[in-house]
Amino acid sequence: MIGRGITIVGMGPAGAEYLTREAWAHLEECGEIWLRTKYLPAAAGLPEGLRVQSFDDLYDANEDIGEVLKGIVQKVLELGERPGGVTYGVPGSPFVAEETVSEVIRAVKGTDLPIRVIDGVSFIEPVCSALGVDPHPQMVLADALHLAGLEVPSFPPTLPALISQLDNSFEASELKLTLMANYPEDHPVMLVHNAGTSEEFVEKIALYEIDQSIHLGLLSCLYVPPLAQGASLEDFQQIIARLRREDGCPWDREQTHLSLRPYLIEEAYEVLDALDQEDSVHLQEELGDLLLQIGLHAQIATEDEDFRMSDVLQGISAKIVRRHPHVFSDVDANTVEKVLNNWEKIKADERKNSGESKKSMLDGIPLNLPALTQANQIQRRAKQVGFDWKTIEPVIAKIHEELGELQDANNDEDKLAEAGDLLFAVVNLVRWLNVDPETALRATNQRFRKRFAYIEAAAAEQGKPVYELSFEALDALWEEAKHQMRHEAE
């Protein structure tokens, strides 16, 4: 009698003609096979006398595919303990896009239950043949169910991708939303149906149309051609590394972390300017310029063997997950105030774990921030430990108090100190109103520039330089500018 054990057979991607000679010989001898699903194309051409069972009842009884796969694995393990063991047939190759096989192998590891794997042709070969493409050297293989659960694709868009397990329009709808985070909605893609069978069909459509296909089924997959080079972080890193190479750009090669400091600040402020102007085209360009600075610093650090871009990404990813347990774990923080309080507690734990338990809460605020931003952050940190007014009335009273002290100041040193106190008090009021002081003052500066440009243009129309106009005339033009810009805003 044949002993207990599990034999896993790759049933190929299409008809029984794709079965290997080893697989066919085993099927002629084993007497019974359990197929993951009886709808495999090869099921119709199996050896005569072979008793065919399937796990389709698990699919019918449960809509959660994860639970279905767990049920299959558990049943295969149970059947493997029988005196005659079990032969388990899976689509394609057991080691290509077949989660149940990897789970069975993991469960058997370390036990005395014998396991044998008979390989098969995967779905990749006939699909690539239908498409007329070679997967070498960089095609991405992805799972539709996995991608549909993400907000952003997990692979670079400049690599071709083959996405399997695209069974129905619901999965296709979720998948296209994920893909459109990196691809244009009209990006040309190809749905491959029934590859390797007489019903093979390649459907060329736009990405946004994939859930409208009437041909989606168990043997459907999606091919996503790559975007042009330069559209991925990896391409960008290669460009930066090429600039820094010995035969690269002389200017880029000479740069250091310290020499790049002014450019980082400049590019950050240009991003802010684009945001203030609400100019999305300008913002896209300026974000790229800012990313260039990050890329250069990461490349310099890589060359100095300090850290790599992957370390930067992994570090910030871990920090974000760690500081958002209300998103990535089961911590309750359903208001902004709870989130901020929890954030400070987590940061305090981080400082303690790194040996910085005595560090001030204010030490993490960079000293080179703009003064308004720095004051705002100081006040927000102080609020976290309860050092703040309970109502807004004392906040306003403090401004009047500081204004009086500034008016009473009788020397330059006192004027400087009291002016700073007044500004700090005004920032506190602005914070109470949930307005960012730096943004507010930049907006005011921008309005002043526009209104003053109006005055200059009006003076030029009169044939006079601005400095020849009286204050009264200038003030009248200022009011005209305010009225006109207010009207334009409406």
Account of the protein in words:
This protein is of the alpha/beta class and 490 residues long. The termini are far apart. Strand 6, helix 6 (144-148) and strand 7 (161-164) form a beta-alpha-beta unit. The chain has helices spanning 21-30, 56-61, 65-80, 99-108, 124-131, 144-148, 169-179, 233-244, 250-254, 261-277, 280-303, 309-323, 325-328, 336-353, 371-384, 393-408, 412-432, 437-461, 471-489, and strands spanning 6-10, 32-35, 51-54, 86-90, 115-118, 140-143, 161-164, 188-193, 201-206, 220-224. A five-stranded parallel sheet has the order 3-2-4-1-5, sandwiched between helices.
Index terms:
490 residues; 10% strand; Helix Hairpins; five-stranded parallel beta sheet; Methyltransferase, Cobalt-precorrin-4 Transmethylase, Domain 2; elongated; five-stranded mixed beta sheet; 19 helices; Cobalt-precorrin-4 Transmethylase, domain 1; alpha/beta
